[in-house]
Amino acid sequence: MDAVASPLPPAFSAWFASRGWNVRPHQLALLEEARAGRSTLLVAPTGAGKTLAGFLPSLVELTERGGVRDGLHTLYVSPLKALAVDIARNLGAPIREMGLSVKVETRTGDTSPAKRARQIERPPDILLTTPEQLALLVSHRDAKPFFASLRRVVLDELHALVTSKRGDLLSLDLARLRGLAPKMSAVGLSATVREPADLQAYLGGSGTPSGLVTVQGGAKAQIGIMATSRRLPLAGHITAHAVDDIYAAIRAHRLTLVFVNTRMQAEFMFQALWRVNEETLPIALHHGSLDVGQRRKVEAAMAAGKLKAVVCTATLDLGIDWGDVDLVINVGAPKGASRLMQRIGRSNHRMDEPSQALLVPSNRFELLECRAALDAVAEAAQDTPEPRIGALDVLAQHVLGVACSDGFEPDALYREVLTASPYADLNRADFDAVVDFVATGGYALKSYERFAKLRRGKDGLYRASNAQTIQQYRMNVGTIVESTMLKVRLGRSRPARPGGQQMLSRGGRVLGELEEYFAETMTPGDTFIFAGEVLRFEGIVENEVVCSRTAAGTDPKIPSYAGGKFPLSTFLAARVRTILATPKEWAKLPDEVSSWLHAQRLKSRLPKPGELLVESFPRTGRFFLVAYPFEGRLAHQTLGMLLTRRLERARLKPLGFVCNDYGIAVWTLGDMAAAIARGALSLDELFSQDMLGDDLEEWLAESALMKRTFRSCAVIGGLIERRFPGQEKSGRQVTISTDLVYDVLRRHQPDHVLLRAARADAATGLLDIGRLGQMLTRISGRIVHQPLDHVSPLSVSVMLEIGREAVSGEAADEILAEAEASMLEEAMA
Amino acid sequence: MNLATREMTGAAAEASMLGRLALVPDLSGALYLPDERTLVVADLHLEKGSAYAARGVLLPPYDSAATLALLGAAIARYQPARVIALGDSFHDRGAEARIDDSCLASLRALQAGRDWLWISGNHDPQISAAMGGTVLDELEISGVALRHEPSHAAMLPEIAGHLHPAAKVRMRGRALRRRCFVLSATRCVMPAMGAYAGGLNVRDAAFRPLFGLGLCAHILGDGRLFRIDQRLLLPD
Question: Looking at CA atoms only, how far is residue A812 from chain B in angstroms?
Fold first, then answer.
C-alpha cells in the first residue's frame, strides 16, 4: 500500500473514495491554511465544491478532537436564511455517511426562543446563521464565554454580503469576534470578483489581509442573445415579443430558470408564458413578494425535478442549489456583468460542463447592453462595486449592541472598529459623534443627559443604561429596512351607502405582499397582475390590500413599472458608449439595431467617446431636450429633478421629464433650442457641476426619496423603532414622524450624524448623486448639441417612456395647484 | 350654473364665514379672526420630543422651539390682540417641567402685550399659572364655540382642533399628504401646529359624523393654501 500520509483522517479519505471523488487541491489548501490558523478567501466559480471546502477543515478538526465537546467551534454566516437551512441539509449527508460525531444546528429568526436559550447554554459544534443573528449573539450578555471556544467563521457568498450595510454590520461583528475569540480564523467563500484584495482585507481585518486561494473557472459558459422571430421593440420592458421563443427554449430543455429584473416583469412573463403554454408544461413563478409557503412549494417542486421552468427574480440569485437547471434565460438587460455571471452559474452545477444561457433584451438599448455584457463575460471582466465606506448609522447600532453585552471603553472600541475594513478610515471625531448619538441623541444645542441610553460606569465602561434599552436594541437589530409591505388578501367590496365609505370584507386568502408605495398608486377598480393572476384593487384596510379576482381575460390596467431595481453598472455603461461610438462594432448587432444606429448617425449624430450628446426638437407644441448620459435610471432621475429646477429659473417653463437607464428627456413650454441659439441658455451651464450645490440642497429638503433614505438611517441607527407585525396598524405614523423629524433636524442641526449618514446613502442609493457627480465631471466641456426638426431615432427609445412614467418634479405646490385647478376646470366645463 | 359650481362657490363662502364670524386660514396652520383681532392655533404639542425621549426614543429636542417659531411668525404677521390655543398645547403633564428656559422665554415674549387663552385639551387637562395666560374649557365668540374636541352635539357653529386633519391628493401619479383645515358651513377643524404632531386623514371615520353635508379642505402647501373639494381627497 502506498505510504504517503494523507492530510485527511481515514474516514474522510474513505468517504471521498466511496464517492469516486478526489480531494480537490483548493480543499486541501484551505485545510492547510486553517491548520496554520490563517484566514483565507476562497474565490471559485459555482460548482467547485466551495461549501465543502469551507467546512472541511472544521469537520477534520472536530473529528481529530475525538468527539470531545468543547463549545462552539465553527460559525457559518450566510446572507439568506434559506441558504443556512440548505447548507445544514447538505452538510448532514457527509457527516452521516462518515459517521462523524459533529453537531450542526441553524439559528435564524425562525428558531424558537427555547432552542435559542439552549444553544447559548449548550452550543452545537457548528452553528449556521445570518448576519442579524450574529449581531444578536455578539451583543448577548454571555457573548464572552459563548465565543471563547470559537475557532472558525465561514462567510458564504461574501461578495454579495459586503456590498451593503449588512456587510458593514458583519465587518464590525467580525472585528468583535477577533477580540472575543483570539484563536478564530475566518474563511470567506466568494464568486469571482474583480478585486479579491478588497475581500481579503475585509476577511482578515484592515492591515492584516487574509490569504487567497483561487480556483480557475471551469468550462466557459455558452451564452448567446436569443434570436426572436418578432421585431425588437424600441422601448419597453415587458419583452412580449420574445415569449414564443422563450417558450420554445423551455420546451427544448430539462429545467429552465427565467430570470427577470422586477416582480412585475416576473408576473407579466409568467402570465404570457401560460397564455402560450399549449402543452401545459409545469411552469412556476417565484419572487420575493409571494407568500413564503408558496415559494417553499416551488422550491421543493424544483428540487424534486417536477418543474420545467421557473420565472424568478433575484430571490433565486444566490447560491442555492435547487435542481438540475440546464438553461438560464435572462430577460431584460443584465445591468452588470458580474450579476449576469452569477445568474448563469445557476445552470449546470458541475464545473466541467459549460453553462447554457440566453439573454433576451426587451428593447434596442437593452440589446446594446446585452452585447456589452457578453463581451465582458467573454473577457471575464468583472464589475464588482467599489468597497463600501462603513455607514455611521450601522456603527451606531453596533455601538449600542456592544454596550448591551459587556460594555466598552471608547478608546479600545475605536481601535477595534478600525480593524473592520469598511471603517478603516473612520476618524475619531466621527466615532465620538456616533457614541454621543447613541448615548444621548447627539444634539448640539440641548442634551438628553437624563434620558441617556448609555451610562459610563465607575470602571470607565459605557453600558446600556436600562433593560428597556437592551430590549429596544434586540427588537431593532439588522440593516434591512424594507419599504413598508402590505399583505395582499382576497376580499370583496360591498356597495357603499351614499355619502358613506365603502365597506370591504376580508377573510380571503393571503396571496403575498406588495410595497405600500405601489398600493398607493392605485385607486379602487384598478386591475394589476399579482401572484400570477389579474386582480382588482378594492382598497386598503388597515395594513392589508384587499383585492378581488377578475373575470378571465381581463387586462391589467396598471402597467409594470419601467426598468429594474438595479441601475446599469458604470462598467457596462462605458462599454455601451463605446459600442455606440464605434460603427465597426455594429456588425455584431442584429440588422434592426445596426440600421437604427445608422439612421441615428444620418439624421442626428452619435456621440464620440467621452461626449454627451444633447438633442433638441419641437414636438406637439412642446420643446424637448434629450440627453444620453448612460448613467442609470437613479442618477438620471436626480439629474431630471435638478435640470427642471434650472430650466424653471431660466423661465423656460419645464413641464416634466422621463428617463430610463440610458437617457433622459425634458420638455418645456419655452423654446430651449432658440434660447441656446441666442445665448440665453448655455448647455455647459445647464449641466455644470454646481447643480450639486444649492440646487441639490434645495431639492433634498423636500425630496420624498431623501426622506425615505433618512427614515431608513433613523431605524438602523436606533433613533426610532422598526415596526413589527401587529404592533401598529400601518407604517403611516412612523413615516410621518420621521418626515417631521427630518424637517426639524435639517433646520436645527444640519450636520447631525444621522443626516450625514442619510447624505452618504443618497450618494450611492436611491439618488445616486455620486454617479451623477462623476458624469458631470466627465462631460464637462464635452457637450455636443444637435438641434433637430423632429424626434431622432435614438431619442424615440427615451420618448416612449412618456406616459409610462412621467415625473413632474416634486414641488408640492405644483401638485396641489393642479388639483385645485382641475376642480375649477370641472366647474367651468 | 351647474351643481359642481354651486358646491364650489358655496364652499368658498363657507370658508370665509362661520356663522357671523369671518375666518382667515393661515399657511402656518393658524386661523385669524380679523373682526376679533384674534389668532387661534391648535394642538401645539409642546415637548412632544422630550416625552418620547423619556421613553427611550431620543427625537431631536428642537420641536418646541420650531413650533414656537412658527407661532411667533404668525403673531408677527397679524399682531393679534388675543391668542387662543385650542388645547393639547402641551404634549403631556410633564411638559411644563421639561420645557427649557429659552422656549419658556419665547412663550413669555409672545404673550406680552396681548390676551392669551389656553383652552384645555385631553393632553393638557391642567395648565399651571407658570405658563401665563388664562385657562378655559371652552369659549364662545360671536355665536361660535371654540373648544378642543369637536362636539357631535354642537348647537352653535364651532372651531375645534384635536383631530389633526391631513388631506391626501394625487395628481400625475404623485400622492401628497399634507395638514389642512377642514371647513363646512357649521364647523372648522384646525390642523395641528406642533412640529411633531402627526395627521389623521380627513376621510377617516372620525370626520364623518362631523361633516355629514360635505367638507372642503384648505391644504397647507409650501407657498400658499390650496382649497380642494372633498371629491379629490383620497383615503390613505
Answer: 7
pLDDT at A527: 72
The reported pLDDT for the residue numbered B177 is 85
Asked if the model's pLDDT at residue B115 lies above 70, the reply is: yes
Which region holds residue A620: left if phi is over 0, alpha if psi is between -120 and 50, else beta? left
Looking at A350, A378, A406, which one is the last position of a domain?
A: A378
Task: Classify B18 as helix, strand or coil.
Answer: strand
B 90-109 residues with CB below 8 A of A?
100
Q: A305 and A406: one domain?
A: no
A250-271 tens-digit pLDDT:
999 999 999 888 777 888 899 8
Residue where one domain finishes, among candidates A356, A378, A400: A378
Distance of CA A127 to the CA centre of its chain: 26
Residues A411 and A340 in one domain: no
Q: What is the pLDDT of residue A125?
A: 96
Q: What is the residue range of A455's domain?
A: 392-480+708-761
What is the Cα–Cα distance from B50 to B97, expressed in whole angstroms? 11
A131 residue type, one letter: P
Same domain, A660 and A797: yes
What pLDDT, on the 0 to 100 scale, is given for residue B162?
95
| pLDDT at position B65 | 96
Alpha-carbon distance values, A225 to A128, A221, A373, A374 (Å) = 39, 13, 10, 9
Q: How far apart are the first and last CA of chain A?
A: 101
Which residues in chain B (32-71) have CB-CB distances under 8 A to chain A? 50, 53-54, 56-63, 65-66
Q: Which residues of chain A have pLDDT under 50?
A: 1-3, 496, 498-501, 559-564, 724-736, 805-808
Q: Which set of grid coordinates corresponds to residue A345?
A: 452559474
In three-state secondary structure terms, A485 is strand
- What number is the ipTM of this complex? 0.87
Residue A757 in any domain: the answer is yes
- The H-or-E segment that residue B117 falls in is strand B115-119
Distance from CA of A108 to the nearest CA of B (A): 27
Q: Which domains does chain B have, with CATH numbers?
A: 3-232 (3.60.21)
Do A229 and A309 belong to one domain?
yes
Instruction: Say what the pLDDT of residue A296 is.
Output: 80
Of A446, A453, A827, the CB nearest to B8: A827
Q: Which helix (H) or strand (E) holds A615?
A: strand A612-619
Q: Sorting pLDDT into bands at 50, 70 and 90, what band is B4?
A: very low
A454: left (phi over 0), alpha (psi -120 to 50) or beta: beta
- Give the residue from chain A lying closest to B100, CA to CA: A446
- Give the model's pLDDT for residue B10: 31
Same domain (yes/no): A35, A100: yes
Query: Is A205 part of any domain?
Result: yes
Tell me what the mean pLDDT of segment B169-190 comes to: 85
A641 residue type, one letter: M
Pairing of strands A510-515, A485-490: antiparallel
Residues of A in contact with B228 (CB under 8 A): 816, 819-820, 823
Instruction: Indicate the residue of A721, A816, A827 with minimum beta-carbon distance to B176.
Output: A816
Given pLDDT bands bounded at 50, 70 and 90, which one contains residue B8?
A: very low
- Dig out the grid coordinates for A732 from the structure: 403611516
> What is the total count of domains within chain A?
5
In Å, how far from its chain's centre is CA A380? 23
HSE-CB at A800 with a 13 A cutoff on CA atoms is 16
B1 at interface of A, judged by CB pairs closer than 8 A: no
Q: pTM of whole model > 0.90?
A: no
CB A631 within 8 A of CB A775: yes
Residues A290 and A399 in one domain: no
